[in-house]
Specification:
750 residues; alpha+beta; eight-stranded parallel barrel; 12 helices; binds alpha-D-galactopyranose
């Protein structure tokens, strides 16, 4: 083993201490340390700590994840795994990365099959390496030539820990992986747990749900080869009744994977909770040939001692600083106009140019032509796969339109759905074997489309070339990558018999590889992830695309609920919201334009209505809102979000429909903030409760402006108040009527 190490992660500096038996640990610093004598790895964040140790049998056992503990208690051996090897029960040692074997009954992280048929893992500590903020611990099987590299990256400023694993076949026989998760998180031994998660369906994504955990397993998952609308790969757990938006301990995590996945929360018979997650083991096996390795996606985990609000802000800051693709990560997202809801498939070059002119007049910065521009795409039954401009709609190609849009001073964007093919397309007629299908079985269509099998290098190679050509030959600044159906019948024509169940993972890997290559070759292009709305929103895709189309549902009341849930896991900047024609969305609800805009302004704003039909009054108001958005955009996209009155108030669970919602975005230096408030209906003449702001400087004076649409109108109710008063006494908004909203700007008085 190496000598004791203390590696500094953030200021102030800690010195590297070496030498036998030197265990001088100052746990007041955020750091990544190896304590030699107790053989403990200690990963300390600003408010959190994570610890694992190597026991007598050289197993790697989990010690602690939660608030920071004094280092002396680790050195004295007081912090122990909570059961010993001879105890009864499942997983007595709480193995840090449990392989299936020995007396493991709970969900394992890893299950393998060796060439001789043995399916029993005995992983033992072999070595470790500390490199800056990264720790790698290598485990080896006690007998077979198989190694596991556990990778940790400490992000102390966010109290987050990235975990992933690499599996290596170091022998000369193949090894089968039958389950290959990213991590198992072990939680402290508390009385009762509540799990918070995101669930939904098409048009109703990312709704916050809560469930009380008990002995047994509660699993959220996707078996669809995509992230899914049904569940999102994010979780939070808290002691039942002990955590809320602004208080209490919350442990949380999110998976960076856009294929099939699972997160399984399991309480064993001893009352201990573990949360296992990663690539789904359902219909999964992977053959590791001699010398090969398999790398899992990252499962990031975090701890907040200040409730769900702080947990979200930790994730948001992490995404902006570490996840979103560079160089655009810290650039402000442009205001989009997207023509889909205005025109659907019925498009042509003149009409798109007319829309672009209208959009420019409103203040739009990026004009996006959605579906319908390519092949024989006159409806949703034809054309997918033929990614060249329609000869009838764009007889001179895209250039007249891209030139016109650029000439107007806007960026130009295009919609594609690269994984899909309609049977009625030139591509499918030429390559019917390229789609997922089983022989002797029908090829089930959804929206008249089948899915190209990107696990095949020839298929993925073709799509890369087509997209690369599209981006090379046209002046395109933005691509919306859609995936309107998910995988079923995952048959893979011509696959070697050892590999058929690798198809799910290989498809997702190929999507990532295509995006990575295209980003490298066309670095200024912005990307949006879409899957029939928000069916592909996760940290994996968000490290390759700059934003996500949150939902096809643009009804503002529904959107408030969807966006509220989305913010628990993902930063506001990544969620795109358009204002479309009124009434719109699924409910055909008539709501004021301000209600639409205020809702959409809480993320990356877009407009998606048929501008050729908007009234002069709508146009005038829209100009005002777009101008207003440009002024508050840095706060929304880069600031800290406080859910002052969220839809669902943890830990009560359920639909917290009190009809009055408020969200605040605060600049990092706390000198500016913007508040959005929404009222469904006033009732019984009651005054609304005060909204208590957060994140301001108590001693500073702030100018408060309630903003009304209409450029001629000055802000109403301009007042100067102290941060303390705004946060303690709060603000009272006077609203009477239905579907009312307010935008309040707060700036430190000079
Ligand atoms: C999906 C997307 C929409 C639009 C259509 C086009 O439904 O979510 O935004 O792009 O496809 O067919």
């Amino acid at each position: 083993m190496k000598p004791s190490l203390i590696i500094r992660i953030v200021v102030p500096a800690l010195l590297l201490l070496c030498g036998a038996g030197v265990i001088s640990v100052d746990a007041s610093e955020a750091s990544l340390q190896f304590l030699e004598k107790p053989r403990i790895f200690l990963l300390t964040g600003q408010a959190s700590q994570y610890a694992v140790s190597v026991n007598q049998e050289r197993e790697l056992v989990h010690l602690w994840w939660g608030p920071r503990l004094p280092s002396a208690d680790y050195e004295s051996g007081a912090v122990l795994p909570s059961a010993n090897r001879t105890g009864w029960g499942e997983n007595p040692q709480y193995l840090e990365f449990p392989g299936w074997g020995e007396w493991r009954y709970l969900e394992p992280a890893l299950k393998v099959r060796f060439a001789d048929g043995v399916r029993d893992l005995r992983l033992r500590y072999a070595s470790h390496q500390i490199d800056g903020d990264r720790l790698t611990i290598t485990l080896k099987d006690a007998h077979y030539p198989f190694a596991v590299e556990l990778r940790y990256r400490l992000l102390p400023q966010f109290d987050l820990l990235e975990r992933s694993a690499v599996f290596k076949n170091t022998g000369d026989q193949p090894i089968g992986l039958e389950q290959a998760l990213s991590a198992v998180w072990h939680l402290p031994h508390l009385q009762a747990w509540t799990m918070t998660y995101l669930a939904g369906k098409w048009g109703a994504e990312t709704q916050l749900r809560q469930v009380g955990l008990d002995q047994g397993k509660f699993q959220i998952e996707s078996r669809r080869g995509a992230t899914s609308h049904q569940f999102n790969p994010w979780f939070a757990v808290s002691e039942a009744g002990r955590a809320g938006e602004e208080h209490g301990e919350v442990w949380f995590g999110a998976l960076a994977w856009s294929g099939s996945w699972k997160i399984a929360a399991e309480i064993n018979s001893a009352g201990r909770l573990q949360i296992a997650g990663g690539i789904h083991d359902f219909d999964f096996t992977w053959q590791l040939k001699p010398g090969e390795r398999f790398e899992t996606p990252v499962f990031v985990g975090g701890f907040s001692a200040e409730g769900f609000g702080a947990a979200s802000r930790q994730l948001h800051a992490y995404q902006l600083a570490e996840v979103l693709p560079r160089p655009q990560a810290r650039e402000l997202r442009p205001i989009i106009y997207n023509s889909w809801y205005a025109t659907e498939f019925n498009i042509n070059v003149e009409q798109q140019i007319s829309l672009a002119k209208k959009a420019k007049d409103l203040g739009v910065e990026l004009f996006v032509m959605d579906d319908g521009w390519f092949g024989k795409r006159d409806h949703d039954r034809a054309g997918l796969g033929d990614w060249f401009p329609s000869k009838t709609k764009f007889p001179q190609g895209l250039k007249p339109l891209t030139d016109a849009v650029h000439g107007l001073g806007m960026k130009f964007g295009l919609w594609v759905e690269p994984e899909m093919v309609n049977p009625d397309s030139d591509l499918y007629r030429a390559h019917p074997d390229w789609v997922f299908h089983f022989p002797n079985r029908p090829r089930t269509e959804q929206r008249s489309q089948l899915i190209l099998n990107f696990a095949r290098p020839d298929v993925a190679g073709h799509i890369f070339q087509v997209l690369d050509k599209l981006l090379t030959e046209n002046d395109i600044d933005f691509i919306k990558w859609d995936m309107n159906r998910h995988i079923m019948e995952p048959g893979w024509a011509g696959v070697p018999t050892t590999q058929p169940k690798e198809v799910w993972v290989r498809h997702t890997q190929a999507v990532y590889a295509i995006l990575d290559r295209l980003r490298a070759r066309h670095p200024r292009v912005l990307w949006e992830s879409c899957s029939g709305g928000g069916g592909r929103a996760d940290l994996g895709i968000l490290s390759r695309t700059d934003q996500v189309w949150t939902s096809d549902n643009t009804d503002p009341l529904d959107r408030l609920l969807i966006q509220d849930g989305y913010t628990y896991a993902y930063a506001a900047k990544t969620q795109v919201a358009w204002v479309t024609d009124n009434p719109d969305g699924i409910n055909r609800r008539d709501t004021p334009l301000a209600f639409h805009f205020h809702c959409a302004m809480m993320g990356t704003l877009g407009v998606g209505g048929n501008l050729l039909k908007w009234t002069a009054e709508e146009v005038a108001q829209t100009k005002w809102f777009l101008e207003e958005y440009k002024q508050i955009r840095p706060l929304v996209q880069e600031g800290q979000l406080y859910r002052l009155r969220p839809f669902v108030v943890p830990p009560s669970g359920g639909f917290g429909d009190n009809g009055f919602w408020a969200y605040e975005y605060v600049s990092p230096d706390r000198t500016r903030a913007v508040l959005f408030a929404f009222l469904r209906s006033s009732q019984l003449g009651n005054d609304l409760p005060a909204i208590r702001l957060r994140g301001l400087k108590p001693e500073a004076g702030y100018q408060v402006e309630v903003r009304q649409p209409g450029s001629a109108q000055p802000p109403t109710a301009v007042q100067t108040l102290s941060g303390a008063t705004l946060m303690e006494r709060g603000m009272t908004l006077r609203m009477r009527g239905d579907y009312l909203s307010a935008l309040v700007r707060i700036a430190e008085a000079k």
